[in-house]
Amino acid sequence: MQPQAFPSGCGLSVWLYFDSGNLTIISDNLTSCAVGYTNGSMDSTIYFWAWLNWYTNPLVSDSEYDAAGTSFTMAYDYDCNNTNTTNYRTETFGEIYIGGTRYTAAAYDETGDVSCGT
Fold it and tell me: 110 with 87: CB under 8 angstroms?
């Protein structure tokens, strides 16, 4: 069975930002739906840009699972090793089940240059 995109009224939101006070990169993710779902999940990874590539540079990942509901969140972070200028990206994949049908979504966000080195 092919998964379908999130239905109208449901969404996956992703924010990635630099917390300069704590020297961390934070990935903050939200799955929400106007109608209830029977279960849901999110898988997310923070990458850094190097060697003209994101995908060979994963730093940290997290996963969250939720029983029946209408929304859930996941936040996790990466602690900077130094203050070198680096770009970061988070990619999150969401999945919910409504009435036995599997729905999926994907979203990403990027920081641009920040003073947080790997």
Answer: yes
